[in-house]
Structures are given as structure tokens and as C-alpha cells.
Amino acid sequence: MQMIDQKGIVKAYLRYLKLQRNMSGNTLDAYQRDLRKLLDYLEREQKDIRDVTLHDLEHFSAGLHDIGIHPRSQCRILSGIRSFFRFVQLDGYRDDDPTELLESPQIGDHLPEVLTTEEVDRLEASIDVSKWEGHRNRAIIEVLFSCGLRVSELVNLKLSDLYIDEEYVRVMGKGSKERLVPISRKAIDELNLRS
Asked: What is the C-alpha separation between 142 and 147, in angstroms, rounded?
């Protein structure tokens, strides 16, 4: 069987992620890096994308573990590879998807680390409010923690997203999902210092 243009398929896949899935540049770079690991493996094994089997992918996955890649990162890499092979199948390069039965490593539930109330209070107390930046920083910290926002969500807030009288904030989260979040009276008071 004649080898196919794997670079061309990867390029088409990345274009699909950008245009159809609307992924950011950083996400595309991560997918490309992860996919490069698989393509390097296939090149060493002299395998064509059309010939990859579940056994090949299990061997590749075991190799990720052997070189010390964290299980969470392994899961991310394998997730990207599943997405790639679904694209390869949908685009007609394969009749099947060899990743259908590919298992990811088990990872325990991980709760994000959060600051305690006392740590947030100490952080706020350390701010020098004799300067204008101090008032801004206190408002930032109070909104961030009282609303439970990601930093990226906070920096994208607009004045039109604040509903002070109703005491909530409209937040655009991951995947352009909008949600309404209550805002504390203390955060509102800090914001009023800046108005």
C-alpha cells in the first residue's frame, strides 16, 4: 500500500480544529505537540496512519508512562489522539477508529487548591491602599474570590457585565459558555471605590 501524506492529514486536522472547533492558538499548539509524539512513534515503527491498530496505540501509551509523563498529561495526549483518529475516519482515510477501545490511565479526582478565607484576608491586608493601584488590586482580589472566577474570566469582564443592583455578574467562561454569578456586597463596595 502506498504511504499517504501524513503531514497533509495533520495540517488538514489542525485546520479543522481551528475553523470547525474554533480552538485557540495555544490549544492548537498543544494538540500539534501531542500529535507529534504519536507521529514520531509511528515513524520509528514504520507505521502508516491507516495501519495503526489498538495494540500499536496501547504500546505508544505505555511508552508515555515509561518516559515519565504524568497520568493527567497522558490522558490529555490520548484524548487528542482519539480526536485525530475520529477526524481521519470521518475524512475517509480509514474505515475504522483504532482508538475506540483505547483506555486512558486512571487518575484520582483532584480538587483544585484554593486559598483559605484567612489567606485571602491576609492577601488583602497586605495591599497598600494609599496608592490608586491598591484600591484597584483590592477590587480585583475581592471580585476574583467572592465570585469564584478564573483569572481569564476576570480580565475579560466588562462594565456591562456587572449588575450591581441585582448583585450578580455575567461571566463568559470556557467554551464561550455564559453564566450568572452572585457578587458579594464587599466586592461591590470595593468596585465603587474605583468608580
From this structure: 8
